[in-house]
Queue: 2 jobs
Job 1
Amino acid sequence: MQQIFNFIFRNKNFLLFLLLFVLSMIFTVQSHSYHRSKFVNSANFLSGGIYSAFSNIDEYFALKSTNEELVEENLRLRKMLFNPSDSLANQITIDSTSFDKNYILVSTKVIQNDFTRRDNFLTIKKGSSQGIEPDMGVFNSKGIVGIIDKTSSGYSTVISILNSTSQINAEIKKTQNFGTLKWDGKSPYTVQLADVPKRARIAIGDSIITGGRSTIFPKGIHIGAIKDFKLDGSENYYEIEVELFNDMTKLNNVYVIKNKDAEEIKALQNSTNE
Amino acid sequence: MNNVVFKFIGLFILLVLTQVLVFNNIDFAGYIDPYLYIIFILLYPFKSNQTLFIFISFLLGLTIDMFLNSGGINAAACLLIAYVRPIVLKLSFGTSYEYQSIKIENTFFSERFKYFLFMITIHHLVLFALEIFNIAQILSILKKTLFSGIFTLILSLLVISLFSRKKES
């Protein structure tokens, strides 16, 4: 017994190092898998509070561009109001016709934004006490931003579309072929659309919108335009480079959307799978 | 003694705040950020309780991880450089550091440079290897380590020479 204690005491630094290293490796591995039970995240009183205090200062510098964005969005919506037929054809970014009463929208602000790492997250200023829940969709006037990950009472973290674990159902507006939106970790301005079959007739410049096959986003929210495409290794599917409409490096006001039917649809899908 | 403790508590808070609010938003050339907060580990008194030092370094990394939502990558990298610091100190300053209490501002530039270079390289290599977590992308890991490492090295040498008291002669 004495020897065991002696051993522990002599090697206490190494043992402490080993223990904490294993702990941090567990956190790291968890952070690389989707839907982990992440223990440390920025949706808490301390980091959320600090970020929101400093974003209060920061947002003054972006007032002009934020205003311009709002006017642009208002203009689009007004055009839609006055020329219904025209607007339905091409002017809409967010297709209002598919928004029925099943969706709840909340507006909020981004208080922290990352885009330089492989797995990027945002922090927003509303949380569970304002009705935000995990797996709700986040977008702004130009396109999609991400999916809610963790919430605290006043803050939430968002898995950005610039995250290697993010997978979002998307489709090509013209041909209605759908695929999965992923990110290769390179440029914050482009994402990749995979699993689009070879027979799809695509061209550079085609619009990509959300597909509506998942319960997170409704159909028709804009994502980006095709920048480049080639066949993948198996020669059966396209690998498409999508240039985002959204500038993910400058995010300010965003909307959070909840599908009221999501739970019912998921329960149904689960019972069918079993 | 108390003075030193307060100084390092203040430095801890200051470095965490500047790291998450300023240095992580620099994004030089799109993706290069300096990780200046590790000068806390570089400057921490050389003659001190190693167990406490390891624990504080872990805490520092974990705090950064909490703000950046990065799992445990900063915690692991900080822990490792804290653990190997005595070896790096011996390599860069010679064995004499153990016997006399040297201060970072009183060291030769070449020795200080060597010490910083070793520590920053180890930290950044572990950090980016864990961040990317894919051995197939080793080139990307090395590229990020190189560029961010140079940025951190220059910035930390500048900060040290700006804020340290002049050599008493």
Note: Chain B has six helices and no strands.
Job 2
Amino acid sequence: MIRSVLALAALSVLAACSSNGAGPVVTAIKDVILPSKSEDVPVISARSTLTREKIEAFGLALIRGRIEGEDISNLLTGTAVNGEYVTYVSSFRQNITMLGSLVTGTRGMGGDLLSVRSDHNDPVAHATPTDAWPETLTRDYRFPGIGPTGTTVSVSCALTHAADTTVIIVEVNYDVTPFTERCKADGVAFTNTYLAQPDTGQIWQSSQWVGDKIGYVNIDVLEPYSVE
Amino acid sequence: MPKHLYRHIPASLALLAATTVYAQSPSFSLNGTAGLIDMPTAQMLPDGETAWTFSNSSTAYGGSLTFQMLPNLETSVHFMTLPDWTAIGEPLFAQSLDLKYQILPESGSMPSVAIGSRGFLTNGPLSSEYIVASKSVGYGMTVTGGLGWGRLGSYRPIGTISTRPAADSTLGINHLFTGDVALFGGLEWDTPVKGLSLKAEYSSDAYTGEQVFGEFEHESPLNFGIDYEPIHGVSVGGYYNYGSDFGLRLTLSGNPNRPIVSPDFGIGPVPVNPRLGDYDRSEGWADSPMTTEFLVSALAPVLEAEGIVIEEARITGNTIDLYVSNNSMPQTTKAIGRIVRTLSVALPHSVEVFRITPVASGLATTTVEIRRSDLEAQVDRPNAGPDSWATTRFTDASNHLPESAWTRNIYPDFNWSLNPIIPVNLASNGAAASVDVLLNASASYRLSRGFSVNGSLTQKIVGNIGEDAETSTSSTPVRSNFALYQTGGPTLDRLTADYDFKLAPSTYARVSGGYLERMFAGVSGEVLWMPTSQNWGVGAEVSAVQQRGYDDMFGFEDYQTVTGHASFYWDTGYNGIEAQVDVGRYLAGDIGSTVTLTRRFTNGWEVSGFVTLTDMSFEDFGEGKFAKGVSLSIPLRWTMPLETRSATGVSFGTIGGDGGARLELGERLYTTIRDYDVVDFNETWGAFWQ
């Protein structure tokens, strides 16, 4: 006798219960939906009105991130410094790692960017007065794949700038030079934008590509990390 | 003003979701492969694409599972019923394996070219071979033309290559590309309406058998069809064939490389803060067992939040050894990465060496040794992946740490689960497909890390499973009476005492005794030798069993036997493909071999197929002449944003054949430990930094 059997085990997983409590679906959803535990009670929240006074009182390196296309911004706080790399963490423990103002890693956001190799004169990674920014640069973006190296996207980029302008980030006006960075590789093309302070090269606002799956993240620097 | 760094910063956030744009892929034919209607094309589905097709026409109905095993190799297994093949109302059940290999991809002005075989190695009623070319010509149009043999050479042949043997469902290769050869071709238009395509083809299949023995009338070689894919992964087709017949198709498809939920969506890892250069290197504190206990009790809840349980622990000098169970994360390398990050934050600075040993089903597997200074030097850096792989050491673990180590004291431990099961019978001796709802209760009473008592009980809730069961006439009905076991009442699927242990750091062992499966009880022992550093292993299994009673949960039939196999396991390292060869004595006493090929994806998807040949004659073997089947396992993590090792499984194959039947044990050793060797760690090492 021939029988072909389809086991719709997904249903069993969804509906299952066990000595460990509800099934993994129910448990995980609870973890995601239920309010934060007391130790996570917000001190500063993107949902409340963000003021410069609150940022100053907060006293920590702080950025505001938003995935392009999403409506809500997230606040991420500088949590770890490793050499020149600073990792910013949200309350859901989703991470953004930056080298200077260059996003070199994301974690927990879906479609992780593992790391970025940049040129030694990359003005996004190493703050540089804008009149010294190069016209071209290269970068290697690494993503998860089979094996330790994963998948590498090597891009060549061309930088152009527009006339200086002003940007307001939480009550503070910054005089900035807008830069557009057009990058290409086989099958990949994206455009990053930066608003950089001319004299220091500090980038206060940017939109950066972090991979096909996430697309762009928009970063506002609310309080830059410094080693002073 | 210095900007201090702080671990937990509250903020209100929203869940993030990535969207994906899907490229148009080739459409499915009536039999579930990439093709026109009845005719194939030279196109390939995306690598890893897995499609389940249900089709129905007046000449055939049933199901098929198509898997794009490699970018240029399509495989498909069909379980079809031909209702009028031998005479009106006398159905024939036909199983076939189809292979299609793309010799040339389409490029520039050149078409794609493929060669294929339907019913590969078996000269059955569906057997045919072909060479086909396809070319996109613009405006969404694709033109296909080819030459067919066998069934595909039966309508208006243009020539003959030797004599083709009669289709008697025997194994062999003599029939391949022999007999009459005929032309076929067709056109597909991918219309501007999203997901809608129209097809027309000239078929070279004369449907000779169906016309001779059935009522089918072949009035035209022209077929017409309409395909519609309303959402990605769901495709339906309607066809008007041969001037007299209508056909319908439903295809559900997925792809391991196209997860519904990104595998790395969720909670990120703990950031690593490196130690300062002049940190305290004193190790005297580590000598106290109380200190170890204190540290472990502090670490345990942190790791348990990630689904990681510390089983054993020891701190000596500058080294910490942790034996851990990973109950949540699908990829062990990700769990190891999370553990060492946590250790780098939590442990005193003098602890330099992290030795992590994953424990699977009570067995310590591979010890992964990572130096803290390497971790600090590599994290966030551009070459972190390959650099960390180069500096990590892997060794076979002893099953336990020395007695002085801290040991989790939770035994005895009792776990249970209750799961609904919904098996669907696609074809069963002409019976209509049936749907049953069963309830399964499983329990495990673990007396120590390696020793447990396990039970499983199933009760039918609704359905017709087991109805109209007939007694087999086989002299060794080891499987052919399987329907008699489906009594409708509670069935004891398993009640065993199991002991998993290690004979040596690279040698695993298992002993089981009791009601091993629904049809057999007895004792079973297994040994597996597989050092972590090599991509192959060998094992042996011997079982002495007696057949269980059909409707008596604890009773027995008279049949007793000794069954066992020697097994060779090989992780090829090529596209995740693993091979397994089992040689030995099967339940019915027949001697033979099973060859299994499995492709495993780094995200946990798994597709496998097996073939068993033994010295039992095809006549005695039962339905299908020889044993074969495919199975598919999809991790729940692929579909939902959860850290879970759960998976949903699908099996598709021969049930009820007495030849080539093996014991269906809970979990064999290789299945338990295969995720923990160096080859597997290498493939998934990208997750280490996630």
Note: Chain B touches chain A through 104 residues (CB under 8 Å).
